[in-house]
Amino acid sequence: MIKISLFAEQERESKLDQIGDALSKLSEHVDFVALAAQIDEAAPRPGRERGGRPPFPTELMVRVLVVQQLYNLSDEQMEFQLLDRLSFQRFVGLRQSSQAPDRTTIWTFKERLIKAGASEKIFEAVNRQLERHGYLARGGQMIDASIVPVPRQTLNKDEKEVVGQDAMPAGWAPSKRRHKDVQARWTKKHGKSYFGYKLSGSVDRRYKLMRRIHVSPASEHDTLHFEQVLDASNTSRDVWADKGYVDGEREQRLGKQGWRVHIQCKAQAGKPLSERQVQRNRRIASTRARVEHVFASLAQMGGKALRSIGLARATLHLHWKAATYNLRRLCSLKHTGPRPF
User: Fold this and answer.
1) In contact, 100 and 80? CB cutoff 8 Å
2) In total, how many domains does the chain have?
């Protein structure tokens, strides 16, 4: 028999608190007001000169994008879940509201950030909060990169030549141009072809938090962005990376600057690794494996695929994804503390 209660809504919320709402932990530890203020500084809210409905508060929209990245939802799915899901409504602040951001509102907010060049600001703002909580980059850092696929494009030979020159074929209608990603590129890994972008990043050894990231077309080699994601704020000068980052000249240059670079040795044709080199690779791998845990977490959050078109949107998406990972990791550190390494 189904029990009817006038207080069913309050009883469900109380039960949700007893079970444990992961989003409530985010609200407990993250200063979303400060994040919203930094977003408004980087990408000012639109004026009301043209009239119309006032935009939703920036703090509310920041929370929406965090939930969207945490659960890997499209704009359409996010709209539905905000209307349907209790925990989302509570976290975003819509329990008593008759209105909720729709798919167009969410898309417009993200476009506002892209046009203002503020894609990196949320990631930087989150990292500043990590430091205020005492989670400074410690113990050295691991550098790695991961391919992020996008839907594959079908182009004829002439179109490929034009796109390869970073141009748009003149014969394409506007509707076709909106659905063609001409900035994503093909690459191969372990004999398999991928089409999309590449996320490079550095992760501190102590807390497994992402400290710096860079987004590029997938065809750009990992090693090109090694120094770009190198985190000078880390308290240790040790850096670990796999054999894809081998570059003797760069290692010498960084060594003179005080860095202790630990990059796995790479075998050459007809010249296998010595036993000593194999043992060294194993020692590096035991530390470097911690960065794989981070990229695996990003994959679980949907960080291994994109629904957007173009490098600018990919950059926004992946910076928010990395920022959301760091916020989730912050909550974990607050409740369980870092594991020994």
Assistant:
1) no
2) 2
